[in-house]
From TrEMBL:
It comes from the Bacteria. This is Enoyl-CoA hydratase-related protein. The keyword rRNA-binding does not apply. InterPro entries: ClpP/crotonase-like_dom_sf (IPR029045), Ech1-like (IPR045002), Enoyl-CoA_hyd/isom_CS (IPR018376), Enoyl-CoA_hydra/iso (IPR001753), Enoyl-CoA_hydra_C (IPR014748). Keywords: Fatty acid metabolism, Isomerase, Lipid metabolism. Pfam families: ECH_1. CDD domains: crotonase-like.
Length: 265
């Protein structure tokens, strides 16, 4: 299936989502927002997709909000009109966290504002050496806390680094982001898609339910009140999956020194 400015490619259980509006730096237009919302909200009901790669064509990953899109700047700047725009974009990031499939994001060039939040909302991030990211919201007269940035950043790095980036709008480059643990790998531009594929293929070798429940447990653990609550979910997940056909297959494969053949059952 394919539609601009977001295109899609399926390869068995892997879905590659491509931001495909390079002429405007893959800025978040109304059409792009709708495409991303429809994609990630729909994945919650699609068991045939197990892993997602989010990437972009052109010089930049995503330059942020498309300020030239008339729909993004209503003629009458009313609370209701602006609220509708704000919440429509916010649905992307909520859907990315809610969908059970791990999301690997391949980042390059600029990832600003809403593009920065796309990176933060992913489960795993790889980047080319030319990546630069910032919370650009502050630079257009708004608060630096937008599209989940105040939630994601303190959890992915720490409160001090989050404060620095959100209160200044300054760019963070690929190497520093890697040093802080925000990126899994930094590679040459020509190796970026391959790096994302390698992580995706590693995940695809896992038992399907095990992979989905790992993301679920991580999501809940981020906001859990303590260790006991986190372990209660882990105990339930492990007890459930221990009864699965895939768990039995994994044991047989280990004993027979072969690759397991998981079915998702």
């Amino acid at each position: 299936m394919s539609s601009k400015p977001v295109s899609f490619e399926r390869q068995d259980a892997l879905l590659t989502v491509t931001l495909n509006s390079p002429d405007n730096g893959n800025a978040l237009s109304t059409t792009m927002v709708h495409g991303l919302v429809e994609c990630f909200e729909g994945l919650a009901y699609d068991d045939s997709v197990r892993v997602v790669i989010l990437r972009a064509e052109g010089k930049h990953f995503c330059s942020g909000l498309d300020l030239k899109d008339p729909s993004m700047s209503p003629a009458q700047r009313t609370p209701a009109g602006l609220w509708a725009i704000q919440t429509s974009i916010a649905r992307i990031y909520l859907a990315m966290r809610r969908c059970p499939q791990p999301i690997v994001t391949a980042l390059h060039g600029a990832a600003c504002g809403g593009g920065f939040s796309l990176a933060l909302a992913a489960d795993l991030r790889v980047a080319s050496t030319d990546l630069r990211m910032n919370a650009a919201y502050l630079n257009i007269g708004l608060t630096g806390c937008d599209m989940g940035s105040s939630y994601f950043l303190p959890r992915l790095v720490n409160a001090s680094i989050a404060s620095q980036l959100l209160l200044t709008g300054e760019f963070i480059q690929a190497q520093r982001a890697f040093d802080l643990g925000l990126l899994a790998r930094v590679v040459a531009a020509e190796d970026l898609d391959q790096a994302a594929q390698e992580y995706a293929q590693t995940m695809l070798r896992a038992a399907p339910m095990g992979l989905r429940l790992t993301k679920e447990a991580l999501n809940y653990a981020l906001d859990t009140p303590g260790l006991e609550a986190a372990m209660a979910m882990e105990n339930r997940h492990q007890s459930l999956l221990a009864l699965s056909d895939d768990a039995r297959e994994a044991i047989h494969a280990f004993r027979e020194k072969r690759v397991p053949n998981f079915t998702g059952n």
